[in-house]
Amino acid sequence: MAQGSAEVLRLNAITKRFGALIANDAVSLSLRGGEVVALLGENGAGKTTLMNILFGQYTADSGDVEVFGQTLPAGNSRAALDAGVGMVHQHFALADNLSVTENITLGVQPLLSMRLDREGARKRITALSGKFRLAVSPDARVGDLSVGERQRVEILKALYRDVRILILDEPTAVLTPQEADALFDTLRQAIANGLSIIFISHKLHEVMAIADRVVVLRHGKVVGGVDVADTDHRALSAMMMGQEAQAPKVAPSRPGATLFELGDVTTPDTGTAPGLKSVSLQLRAGQIIGLAGVSGNGQAALADVVGGLRSPAQGQISLGGAVLDQWSPRIAVQGGIARIPEDRHKTGTIADFDLTENAILERYKTAPFSHRGWLDWRRARDFAKGIITKYDVRCPGPDTTIRLLSGGNMQKLILGRVLEADPQIILANQPVRGLDIGAVNYVHGQLLAARDAGAAVLLISEDLDEIMALSDVIHVIAGGRLSPGFARGSMTPADLGVWMAGKGAGQGFDADAA
Amino acid sequence: MRLEPIQHPGLTRRLGPPVLALGMTVVLAGFLAMIAGANPFSVLGLILKGAFGSQFALLETLNRATPLIFTGLAAAVAFRARFWNIGAEAQLYAGALLTVLLGTGLLPWPSFALLPVLAISAILAGAFLLLIPALLKTRFGVDEVVTTLLFNFIFLLFISMLLEGPLKDPMGMGWPKSARVLPEARLPRVAEGLRLHWGFILAILSAVAVWVVQTRTTLGYEMRAVGLNREAAAFAGISVNRVLILTALLSGGLAALAGFSEVAGLKGSLTLDLSPGFGYTGIIVAMLALLNPLGVIAAALFVAGVFVGADSMSRAADVPTYLADILLATALLAMVLAILLTRFRVVRD
Asked: Given B225, B232, B237, which is nearest A348 (Cβ)?
């Protein structure tokens, strides 16, 4: 820790309002040289707004930002970058068709310079990647890199610009446990080289592992700042939620009949994303199957096949014991499959539709929401109102445009939409990504309740903790191939990490489900 | 300076900018009238008077608005589903062609039987014409902006060929003009002695029907969903291609009704100057109406009023009628800016 060092970054009483909503309420934060501060908080707690103000995307209503003692001009998006603050976003901003070196030098090279000093740039990148233990080849095409490697490129991009302060937004969300450890190693190197780091996360054990100090944000306010040495898991989680978090207690499952089955399903690759390679999978009543894996290893293809968006090129799908010869989203919905999509903004909801219109999105064509092509808006509205009450969707009412809702409330509406149909099979694809702990526990509780009521659940997540906490059986997907099923408690995260890296312990990836 | 999104625009912010846009348009038009050497106030007064100032002027405006309501609806319906039909001009002529083909004596029926058949044939012709680009788009991903636009030229040349050949009126003194339709194929006047035909009423009813479809039916819901977010619509189980094709059929049919109404209600025969670009002006009408089918009626009246008013103003004040084109262009640009300002606020760095 660097208790005595000078402050390098200071946010002074930042306040930002959006209409009636106070996104940041007099938020103050300081970062000292050589320190790692974790910014912990729910989605909707104001972390993103705060960072957007730091980088000049928004102008604060009051308060200011100081970097190395200099107050930054408000609303200037270059100022923070020029002052030496770099940010690694959750979603990378890299050009797939360019090399690592080209991506890193993009934007630093003068626009009109006649020749590129490519050799100099390469040397510097090689030196940086050695110094910070960021193994990546400067000549590789970014499109060919894994997600972990791409993140390293993003970090190198910041380091190449000589940043002194590095901000990482949920950096481990896309990494295997092994890759996350390597990232922490890199961050320690960065600290040793005099950088300061703000680490945005909602994973408590990571925060405990890497941070010196934790600042907790809740409902736009700083609710606490403690040294990691003086706190523990429980206290932090209590601070973040306003009460002690209750991790769901999971009773042993009593699996019943097979409700849904993929038999030797193969789908073609799409772009860089692998398709499925002879995947066989059984979803049984009263059981949660967890699908672990590093992002982009065939999860999307599997979710599309189960959700009805893609038909297998080879192999078959059985629903309730009957082999299907036609497959579409509507058949899936009518067959009792509840689909919670990975991206609630792009696929789960229509942003400019109101809550009522979004609530009936999957079932507008059937009674009671329509009769012979005529919509019954009164019924639809009542349905939406019911979901709002039962699933605690915080909103002004069913006529609100859904884009105005926070991610958690949007997810609750989707959850209500699919669970109200009493589904037999639930496909939950990243159901809690970006949600606050309160909402996470709520969603998990609903999934467990559905399981106990006899539903078959397929949980797809890149968060291994989530998979391990909820799943009765875990499969790992890597390169579109499915590992055998592992019973609850039979594998450690490190064991699963080996499978996630595509190297099953001596066994073929084609092995059938347990 | 940059734009910051507004989360909850208030009523003043939603109504203010469009009113401001109209004001801006009027001021600019007055300025241009001044450059042309006329008194801006009298020019604007003359436009208003020429468009709405007398029964004759008003009926002229309503007649001019009729085809614009149809083509405006065609654009509004298609654009709502993000299907860019730029080919309303061709679909209009397709409707007119069918009206002339069947209405000049082929079907010697009384009005009450003949007129519906003519209207429906026109709708089918327009729908068919737009079906081709729609299929090219859904099957092969061919950009409909290009195909519908080019269809306008192909189809107008085709009409020109017909008017110089098989459809040429033998009594037409050599002009490229079709024979006149039967008296039974003419749309009657709304009231005796009033120079306004039933096409206008049909246009209003069509707008109401489109509004009902869009807000009350599953098809309208699907069209809006497909227009706003194709990925989410497909995920929810809406067949995006099917919706695009139905949208195209509806849009093409509406545009074709403009051709039917112009021939059966006003002109009586088909010539190459049947439409002074109604198909293209319909796009402006739809945009000014923010794609709202009921708004299309108001926007069409505004646009028709500007054209009719500018014609009469030009005769009286010796200012070129091109002022009308500039007025419309300014109104459109100002409206686009106004829409932007209802959703974003300008922040100074």
From this structure: B232
**Low-confidence winner among A432-436, B20-24, B298-302 (lowest mean pLDDT):** A432-436
Domain covering A257-336+425-436+454-514: architecture: 3-Layer(aba) Sandwich (3.40)
- Pairwise CB contact (< 8 Å): B218 & A20: no
Round to the nearest angstrom and report the end-to-end CA distance of chain A: 48
Confirm or reject contact between B192 and chain A (CB < 8 A): no
pLDDT of residue B295: 92
Number of domains observed in the structure of chain B: 1
| Interface probe with B: pick from A57, A72, A347, most Cβ of B within 10 Å | A347
Q: Give the contacts of A448 (CB within 8 A, at least 6 positions apart).
A: A248, A250, A288, A470
Instruction: Evaluate whether residue B229 is within a structural domain.
Output: yes
Backbone angles phi, psi at A317, to 5 degrees: -115, 130
Please give the pLDDT value at position B291: 92
Contacts of A332 in chain B (CB under 8 A): 237
Q: Which residues on chain B are in Cβ contact (under 8 Å) with A19?
A: 7-8
| CATH class for the domain made up of A7-241 | alpha beta
Whole-angstrom CA distances from A114 to A109, A110, A111, A118, A139 are 10, 9, 9, 12, 21
Q: Which residue of B has its CA nearest to A79?
A: B349
Query: What radius of gyration, in Å, describes the C-alpha atoms of chain B?
Result: 21
A-chain residues within 8 Å CB-CB of B8? 19-20, 404
The answer to whether the Cβ–Cβ distance between A353 and B225 falls below 8 Å is yes
Q: Which helix (H) or strand (E) holds A468?
A: helix A464-470
Whether residue B59 lies inside any domain: the answer is no
pLDDT band at A20 (very low <50, low <70, confident <90, very high): low
Question: By three-state DSSP, how is residue A352 classified?
Answer: coil
- For residue B138, what are the domain limits? 65-297
Task: Judge whether A7-241 and A257-336+425-436+454-514 match in fold.
Answer: yes
The answer to whether A348 faces chain B, any CB pair under 8 Å, is: yes
CA dist B296 → A208, B244, B301 (Å): 61, 21, 8
* Residue A247 in this model has a pLDDT that exceeds 60: no
Sheet holding A196-201, edge to edge: A85-88, A165-169, A196-201, A36-41, A213-218, A221-227
Domain boundaries of chain A, sorted by first residue:
7-241, 257-336+425-436+454-514, 344-422
- Residues of chain B positioned with their CB less than 8 A from the CB of A361: 225, 232, 236
Mean residue pLDDT across chain A? 85
Distances (CA, A) of A359 to A331, A345, A349, A385: 18, 14, 9, 10
Element (H, E) at A222: strand A221-227
Q: What residue in B sits closest to A356 (Cα-Cα)?
A: B221
Residue of A nearest to B2 (CA): A75
Q: How far apart are CA A284 and CA A17, in angstroms?
A: 48
Separation of alpha carbons A395 and A384, rounded Å: 11
pLDDT tens digits, A479-493: 899 999 999 888 888
3-state class percentages of chain B: helix first, strand second, coil last, to nearest 5:
75, 5, 20
- Band (A111; pLDDT cuts 50, 70, 90): low
Across the interface, do B7 and A353 touch by the CB < 8 Å criterion?
A: no
Question: What's the mean pLDDT in B37-54?
Answer: 88
Quick one: residue A382, left, alpha or beta (phi over 0 = left, psi -120 to 50 = alpha)?
alpha
Beta A473-478 vs A486-487: how paired, if at all? antiparallel
ipTM: 0.86
A309 part of contact set with chain B, CB < 8 Å: yes
